[in-house]
Amino acid sequence: MPEMSPCGQPGPLGTLILGLKVVWSELSWLAIKYLRRLEIRQLEKQLARERETLCRLAAPDPTRDTKAAAERDLAEKQVAFLKEEIDLLARELEDARRDYVARRLKTWGLDPE
Description:
This protein has helices at 11-58, 66-107. By secondary structure, it is mainly alpha-helical. It is rod-shaped and about 80 Å long. It starts with 10 loop residues before the first helix and ends in a 6-residue tail after the last helix.
């Protein structure tokens, strides 16, 4: 009986098919990762702009002007929010990768469990 590869096809043909599936899957993942990293980069740019605003507002004494104090408070909250959002998206990207690989292994019958 010929040796069977993990995808159910005999020998080198099965290995070739599995390799093509892996390549296609990785290319799909790269597209997903690119789009998510693009979103994270946009948030990082916005965070940099908010930090600039915060530095600009910190130069004069904001306690004398209530409008400047309110803007500074808003900028501080925005900076904190953007930091949390960037961290959340980065963690979600890592989790998505683990789930993506686990689903792929299970679908192709390569799951060791």
